Amino acid sequence: MNVIATASVLTLPFSFCRSSKLDTKKVHISEARMSSVLDKLAYMEELVNDKLLQERSANDVSHTFTTPSTCIDVSGPVQSYHPHLKNFWYPLAFSADLKDATMIPIECFEEPWVIFRGKDGKPGCVQNTCAHRACPLHLGSVNDEGRIQCPYHGWEYTTDGKCEKMPSTQLLNVKINSLPCFEKEGMVWVWPGNDPPTATLPSLLPPSGFEVHSEIVMELPIEHGLLLDNLLDVVHAPFIHTSTFAKGWSVPSLVKFLTPASGLKGYWKPYPIDMEFRPPCMVLSTTAISKPGTVGRKYARHSATHIHQLHVCLPSSKQKTRLLYRMSLDFAPVLKYIPYMNHLWRYFAEQVLNEDLRVVLGQQERMNKGANVWNLPVSYDKLGLRYRLWRNALERAAKKLPFSK
Question: Is the separation of the CB atoms in 302 and 45 below 8 Å?
Fold first, then answer.
């Protein structure tokens, strides 16, 4: 029987007692005892869950960490991205940033693209290079017809890349490259791969009960895999983020990431943080923020207030990542209406990332000189290691990717 269900049964005698004429002191004693019982039951439930997760992942852990040095080699100058990594839907921008008559130039897998809205309001993504004289199209404008106009000679392109106007000359049959483009849940997605796009896009919305408070885009001088390695690691927080969110955090004697053997998500212990790597480049986390630095036994879900974070690490070039960051809260909705609040969220996000960049840039420098940044994986590296094993299997065209359902 579920432990929490048992706890709800135990509350019935107490409800009956309250209806009787017990004095206040006895009621308080009963409440204290009941609270203690519920805490113990919740703790027992957590121990059971921990044990089940550990048993389910025992074989996987043994395999993963038997010969770690032979499992992962991330060293040497960053190579061009493997074509298999392109065969996914990638979010490029937040819908709110792509207003009518605006353009957003981006790099995706070392190629220049530009996104804009057509006359019907739907977004499109075309190569950011005019077919005529290779002028960057984003230097031009989007006209009333929903076509992007090259600033050099005025050639105009639709969202599917077709040139529909060539001033001062005869119209030729010209079309520039475009990517399948779709808008869903406040994000603009593209499919950069050669394989046919999958029919459905993943959902990146926060859990029920959360409201989005901030959406931020940053361009970072880091290879996207190194950034993912960093985001999938919590253990560095009390050492790196000593001036921001982890200020004053204690350093636990042991940190674990508990997850099923086939999973890419789980929870940190003793930190109250749930985390997931979602292929190909997304990290989702939910953190209890009432006492986020407290080393205790409670899950993130047992707290009353949380922050949910989405990080999308788009591979721009060999040493550049376009980061889309979405932050959501399940409390204090009034914060959304405070003027300039988004500027404050951005400032704080930049402070946190700058703490990380100092270290990750150093890793990237060493890696480019031949050092392996995954030399000695230990137990708390589990989620980051699984990301690397997943990516390695994808790039070597494995018939079945590891840690997938």
Answer: no
Helices (H), 248-381: 341-368
* Cα 207 from Cα 60, distance rounded (Å): 29
Integer-rounded Cα radius of gyration of the chain: 25
Q: How far apart are CA 280 and CA 204, in angstroms?
A: 13
- For 26-48, b where at least 16 C-beta lie within 10 A, e where not — what string? eeeeeeeebeeebeebbeebbee
| Entry pTM | 0.82
Average pLDDT of adjacent 10-residue blocks, the chain of 405 residues: 35 38 47 48 47 46 40 88 97 97 97 97 98 98 97 98 98 98 97 96 94 97 97 96 91 94 92 95 92 50 86 96 97 94 95 97 96 94 96 93 83
Closest CA to 389 of 310, 279, 305: 279
Strand-by-strand arrangement of the 156-157 sheet: 141-142, 148-149, 156-157, 163-165
Cα(89)–Cα(188) distance, integer angstroms = 10
CA gap 151, 47 in Å, rounded: 65
DSSP character at residue 176: -
- Those residues with Cβ within 8 angstroms of residue 384's Cβ, 6 or more apart along the chain or in another chain: 228, 229, 232, 233
Closest CA to 389 of 371, 397, 381, 401: 401
Helix H or strand E segment including 146: none
